[in-house]
């Protein structure tokens, strides 16, 4: 009987530690969501738009196999980045995403070029991390309000920000090594 109790106790502890991880991950996600200036329904709608966009690209064989496109939705504004071999495919991708319900605007920043290499993609992730870290350590700056997307060393900044916050975000991003260009895709708020 004692052995069974010990096994149950050890099993319960391992299950609880898994639950603790889930609770911590959920709390972190909730904290990030609470810092966002978008409403929770808008955040969920943005996720839904991204899923629908991925599906639209996947269902179109020409777009899926012939391009390298990423989709980011923020406040129902969709940013398209990546590469397409022709202007026609770039336009087609924008048209497909524009058909999705609740998309207010499409910012088609797809470059007509061959897809970037695996190493360029990893470098983009590194640049994004450096930009976010620089913003995080900037005094009196709402870094959690800025979405950073990097594609082929070009940094795209999205968010609901004041003009002053936008200017500061651009300045921070421009001063990160490896960034070749900063593109603003902000929606502006009135200062409080």
From TrEMBL:
Record keywords, A-Z: Signal
Signal peptide (UniProt feature, chain positions): 1-17
Protein name, as recorded: BON domain-containing protein
Biological classification of the source: Bacteria, Pseudomonadati, Pseudomonadota, Gammaproteobacteria, Oceanospirillales
Gene3D superfamilies (UniProt xref): 3.40.1520.20
Any Pfam family matching the protein: BON
Domain BON: 45-114, 123-190
Native organism: Aliikangiella coralliicola
């Amino acid at each position: 009987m004692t052995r069974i109790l010990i096994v149950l106790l050890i099993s319960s502890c391992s299950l609880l530690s898994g639950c603790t991880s889930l609770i911590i991950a959920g709390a972190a996600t909730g904290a990030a969501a609470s810092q966002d200036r978008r409403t929770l329904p808008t955040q969920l709608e943005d996720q839904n738009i991204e899923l629908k966009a991925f599906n639209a690209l996947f269902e179109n064989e020409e777009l899926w196999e012939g391009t390298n496109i990423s989709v980011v939705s923020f406040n129902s504004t969709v940013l398209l980045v990546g590469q397409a071999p022709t202007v026609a495919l770039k336009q087609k991708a924008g048209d497909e995403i524009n058909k999705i319900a609740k998309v207010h605007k499409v910012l088609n920043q797809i470059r007509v070029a061959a897809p970037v290499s695996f190493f360029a993609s990893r470098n983009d992730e590194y640049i994004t991390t450096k930009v976010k870290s620089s913003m995080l350590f900037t005094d009196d700056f709402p870094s959690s309000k800025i979405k950073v997307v990097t594609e082929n060393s070009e940094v795209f900044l999205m968010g609901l920000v004041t003009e002053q916050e936008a200017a500061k975000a651009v300045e921070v991003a421009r001063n990160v090594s490896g960034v070749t260009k900063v593109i603003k895709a902000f929606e502006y708020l009135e200062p409080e």
